[in-house]
Amino acid sequence: MLPVISIPPSECFNIGGLRGLRVWPAGNVRGYAEPVASVVATELDLFDPANFADIYFLDESASYDEDPEQNEQGDFYKVKLQLLVAGDAPDVSEAVARLTGGRYLAAFLDGNGRTKLAGTPEWPLKLLIGTETGRKPTDRNALPFTFTGVLPARAPFFLEQELLPADARRAWSAGFSFGFS
User: Fold this and answer.
1) pLDDT in tens, 92-114
2) 165 - beta bridge partners?
């Protein structure tokens, strides 16, 4: 029998959406401490600490979903992290080509200022990148990024990662680099 517990009411704002995103290639992550009470309280153990990408996206364009499912092997979560990166341009095409189809761990900052870590070296997220130009001048010209995967547990909170929120993002520039070595 389960102990009697309650879920306390939130004592903060409940703001949807994502504000920041950092990804690491799954092959760059040796591992990390097992989550305790759904929290990873230590840094990732990385082969190369400089091998990551901060992905800057359009305001109010990013979301993360975890849909629980069950099969004969047990419970699992189908996850999807979606966002829009401002218009396709020559200065981002090389970085986009390097990222597309890769396998990643993703740390994301939600609208309430909490960071979670989706993916593991054994259960990474796959990235697909599309292009949309819109039909009329008021439509968005953007690159839809979609990270998908199947995880054995919900994404834990990640206390050791500081991400830049939306108001600190910078625009793409000719010198922009995803920092992959």
Assistant:
1) 788 888 888 899 999 999 988 88
2) none
DSSP 11: S
The first and second tokens of residue 8, run together, are 């306390």
d(CA 102, CA 119): 13
Residue with tokens 């990166």: 85
Residue 18 has pLDDT above 80, yes or no: yes
Residue 77's contacts (CB-CB under 8 Å, 6 or more residues apart) are 66, 67, 68, 69, 150, 151, 152, 153, 154
How would you write 99-165 as a 3-class SS string?
Answer: HCCCEEEEEEEECCCCEEEECCCCCCEEEEECCECCCCCCCCCEEEEEEEEEECCCCCEECCCCCCC
Work out the angle at residue 147's Cα, subtended by the Cα atoms of residues 83 and 50, and round it to the nearest 5 degrees: 90
pTM of the model: 0.82
pLDDT interval class at 177 (50, 70, 90): very low
State the Cα–Cα distance between residues 172 and 53, nearest whole angstrom: 13
